[in-house]
UniProtKB/TrEMBL annotation:
Protein's recorded name: Nucleoside diphosphate kinase
Subcellular location: Cytoplasm
Enzyme class: transferase
Domain Nucleoside diphosphate kinase-like: 1-138
Keyword Transcription: no
Gene encoding the protein: ndk
GO MF, one example: ATP binding
Catalyses which reaction(s): a 2'-deoxyribonucleoside 5'-diphosphate + ATP = a 2'-deoxyribonucleoside 5'-triphosphate + ADP; a ribonucleoside 5'-diphosphate + ATP = a ribonucleoside 5'-triphosphate + ADP
EC numbers for this chain: 2.7.4.6
Amino acid sequence: MSRTFSILKPDATRRNLTGKINAVIEEAGLRIVAQKRVKLSTAQAEAFYGVHKERPFFGELVGQMTAEPVVVQVLEADDAVPKYREVMGATNPEQAAEGTIRKLFALSIGENSVHGSDSDENAAIEIAQFFTDAEIVG
Ligand code: RTP
Ligand code: MG
């Protein structure tokens, strides 16, 4: 078993889609072992997406991620990181495969409904930014 970190982004919470997205996650065999709704501060969003700080879309990304609440989650499965990336679909929903969360729900490359960690190392870092060990019940 391994873990990944997930965010249901503001475009998803705004449209009341968290239950529908969780259904896709669970049907794919990922278990939601921690979950909470939070409003990210600008500092939290800038730290979280720090690797993108030189990119032209960074300001827009931080603005979108802090505009409304998000749901942060820890997901558990065998090979959780690549499994969830597959369930999420491509960053740009126009390129996302049928049945993926982004194909089903995303509005645009910026408002693409979900985040998922891109490596086991980053998953551990991201989980620790939002959850204590006691809050994760596997
Ligand atoms: P994420 O980190 O959110 O799971 O998404 P990802 O790995 O599929 O994509 P990444 O390259 O890490 O980009 C992070 C997020 O930045 C926004 N983005 N906007 N306007 C643009 O061209 C653009 N490119 C990326 C997206 O919200 C993307 O998920
Ligand atoms: Mg990424």
